[in-house]
Design goal:
330 residues, Dihydrodipicolinate Reductase, domain 2, homotetramer, 15 strands, six-stranded parallel beta sheet, alpha/beta, 12 helices, seven-stranded mixed beta sheet, Rossmann fold
Chain lengths: 330, 330, 330, 330
């Protein structure tokens, strides 16, 4: 039985801790957060220990693995500390906003031969996984175009924007990973057009809130991503892959299949599952399970720091392209 | 070129006349209605002759075929008059509300060897025809169950109810024909449960407005029909056929594929096509064309008076079952 | 914390035991089954005690509640034994196949004031619950018609048929409960037409495999149920409720939203979730939670033995109607 | 009654001629094509005159309006000849492949005050028109992003590619017009990424077969277009408009609503309507009707040469962008 600790008791830490508590492959030993009350209340509800010192927790002899769900600027330090002590790590994305720090961390981790997985949770979503499986099975032949729609229900507070690294590093990074995964080839060119159409305060903070991106691989495959920080109708997460022999589409999820017809004559359905904690609840569960399974079975991590590094480089390139109006070679 | 006249310039006559005017297989010579103004205005818009004497029109030497779209109580007389003069006839349903008169007419028509088609337009609806074609091609194996949903957007005026022959002969008759057609076997038992849930005035007139019917064939195949004189969301026309190897479903039609997502988060679509003139516009066109094609090519009529007779007998049996609470053998 | 035991370690007992183990409102103390190996292996995987004596287990002082998932013919004895000792009970349906025994049990349970819930799991399905909530909120006005489609992917083995109580008591009973719940009024008339279209062996065993039922309430509301023991395309579970101001529809569930388009040009989707353990996994979880919530909060059980009794009486009446071809008054 | 002639008796000329013959606002007088047999056979089937001299036909005193459906390189000469004689013109797109010739023609037409409509048929598609109407009614607030999917079922023959003007001027031009129309603002920047993924012969002819385009307006609205010369699943024509208060989606059309479920368990639907003559049959009919209505009522043409000019400039800019990898300002 893998003994695990979760670092961070905020929104994302709580998800991982609850999944760890329910997963038969592991035993949740402790949750740690510098905010004492957050750690205490989470530990109490899950029946594990609480700590207000993440660094001390990851160093415990009786801990085999940690999940890092603390603020982004603490990821690298905790990740390396854990790796140096031989702990397996599931680290929330992004590894860091600075590609230089990520490069250095990746190099050290490789040198250590550490078991580290970066948490691009969407790859574990059952519908996204079904697309990838169908591609791998040759269901639609060679990929030609990928289209990813990714719009949030509401923008984060302005305070978050400032420290977020910007739209591309904070939000698009998920889609850049997904696009690379589905293209089946590394993108080597990226173009981005970006605007501020939602909230002028976002523009004033030097960021964008609405963007369209095109990536291209060496063989000519293309991927389009569209993003917006706010969609009135909810969290919009769709995928389309078009190949030589067909097309695959994923639609949004709703809480029930209920359709209502009233005197307006239209067919109405439930609102979309709103927001990532609900929409990707199953993905978070499966992601942790995949991490634990790789540990238990000694197999390759399904996602590594290299994947995090690659996505961040694409995000940086998209940022540069949006500023210059030119294609950026990656 | 078949020379054709349309008898009746009301709602249904106007549909047939416009289709005749546009069909390259025939030439619309005249429209006739005892209401002079209706005949005149229709004739003017389509560039043909007008008459206020349907009987005289059908007797014209230069007419090969007539469409009978006059009130139900005139059908048999006009149908027989036309048949006796060797004219081909497309007659609106029901042939008559009295099964005795229909039996007599059917016998005389058979004796004359007359070319008569009864207008169960729904069989020509592209989606219903696609279901029937798939059945005939063995797409789902032997039929087990048929479910027909047929609800009108709004009840007819009380005055109409009185002379309509009642829910089963007026409205269900279409579904009884459709059910028999899709079962692929003659129903020999029928059961009906009926209520007045829409308008007490309909009950006061001795009729029902909401009904559920079950038909059964000798081999045990089953058909369910549900009817209501009023559906708040519009004209509901759906078909389901369940067989040994699969299922076929037909959904309602809408004017466009538009889906709207707004701040309520639901997906909304266009209202249903509302009412039979819109919903079955294409079916009426194809029905006339099938009639003309059978004439031009000398082939069997796709629907005969016998089909009308059979549907009326089922309607009479459903009526009796609803009154007695017992299965009626047909 | 409610201390619970699960009686029966077969297919359904395993579901309940796993849900009990994961539910924070209770602690799974033991599983009991006369088949020692089944009890042992289930207990081992969930970390609880095993017993091969259900009667002894329910009598334990440290048990507050039991889930009865043993064979149908043991339900009443275990249910009454538990009730007499003051244990709360969640009992699988049907309570018994003999209405006389169910009547007697219901009377004794009422006299004891025991806390007993009958497990009509489908009422807890999120989509069915969404329909019921919408009805209660008046979304479509007064109910006029309910249509329930309920077809199994494959028939049970002939040996099961013989002891099942027949199609209506074994399979339709779920739909009879669902129909009564959605009609919002007690049905007082029922009609059934039944056939053997799937397997002659089922007919030889004196049962039917394909049926259509109509129920009617005193005010004239109507409910249609269609059943078949085998559907080539999988487990078909749909609900339609038609009311004075609109309609509600529930569709089947699939594992993902994936749609595939290939060279045939059609749009293909994932197969339906197949069979009740998968399709109603969430319903089983929510059902147990509702039972535990009612215990914890001291509120009324969401479903009682009376609901089981009512559904069985409708099943008996449907059986009689199918044999006689007449409406049966309940 | 407007007296009309159709120039060109090829694929597109036949569509326009049949629509003119059936439209009550006009009388089809003649069809003209230098290919005598094509003109004769079309004229015979529609009951009008045939000519093998388009220029002479448009000059006839008794002709009020002409539809130009001849090869692209003859458009400008016929268009100007007709305009100079005071004939109204519905001209197929593109007006010409050379923006200089289009500019000159546009200037002369404006000087003449001639009544000329350019045939971007898709604007008249009922579903596209429903999107535009909903936008105009403010259904989703200010537009932020438009996504247009436009893929052909099969590439044209290599011989056609050479004289087509290339992917952007031949195929994308429709989508550029649609995107501009739906953005509600003129795009002033365009970026294109293009590849040859379908057929190397297309690349050898100096053209692309697969492209992704992004357009941006001055206020920051964005439009994505994706194109491919070949889609295994048929003619893919979808539209998405995302605005401040919601989203509008248009899906593809199929011949019927039939859904089939078989032993694979999937839901299958009819193939897409395949190709533009079928998919846009109604749009062609409504386009001609809009042209005739504008003539009959003396109102503004719904589309002018200016619209053709604008779309061609965008196509030229997309072509340049694809060659240079840079955003092109329009």
């Amino acid at each position: 039985m893998i003994r695990i600790a979760v670092l961070g008791a905020g929104r994302i830490g709580r998800i991982h801790a609850a999944n760890a508590a329910a997963n038969p492959r592991c035993r949740l030993v402790a949750v740690a957060d510098i905010a004492e009350e957050a750690a205490d209340s989470l530990a109490r509800s899950l029946g594990c220990e609480a700590s207000r010192d993440p660094a001390a927790t990851l160093a415990r002899e009786d801990i085999d693995a940690v999940v890092i769900g603390t603020p982004t600027d603490t990821h690298v330090a905790l990740l390396l500390a854990a790796a140096r002590r031989g702990k397996a790590v599931l680290c929330e994305k992004p590894v860091d906003l600075d590609i230089g720090k990520v490069d250095a961390a990746a190099a050290e981790i490789e040198g250590l031969g550490a078991r580290v997985m970066v948490a691009f949770n969407r790859r574990f979503d059952p519908s996204a996984a079904a697309v990838h499986r169908a591609l791998a099975a040759g269901a639609i032949g060679a990929v030609r175009q990928v289209v990813i729609t990714s719009r949030d229900p509401a923008p984060p507070p302005p305070s978050y924007i400032a420290s977020s690294g910007g739209l591309f590093r904070d939000m698009t990074i998920h889609d850049l990973d997904m696009g690379s995964w589905l293209l089946g080839e590394e993108p080597n060119e990226i173009f981005a057009a970006a605007s501020t159409l939602v909230d002028p305060a976002i523009g004033a903070a030097g960021d964008f809130d609405t963007a369209m991106i095109i990536m291209r691989t060496a063989s000519g495959r293309q991927c389009h991503i569209n993003n917006c920080r706010q969609a009135a109708y909810g969290y919009d997460q769709r995928i389309e892959v078009f190949g030589a022999r067909g097309m695959l589409l994923n639609d949004n999820l709703r809480p029930s299949t209920l359709r209502r017809y009233d005197a307006t004559g239209t067919e109405a359905r439930d609102p979309l599952l709103n927001f990532f904690l609900e929409r990707y609840a199953e993905a978070y569960r499966l992601e942790l399970d995949a991490f634990l399974a790789a540990l238990a079975e000694g197999t390759k991590m399904p996602l590594t720091v290299e994947d995090g590094r690659r996505a961040l480089r694409l995000a940086d390139a998209a940022h540069l392209s949006a500023r210059t109006g030119r294609t950026v070679t990656v």
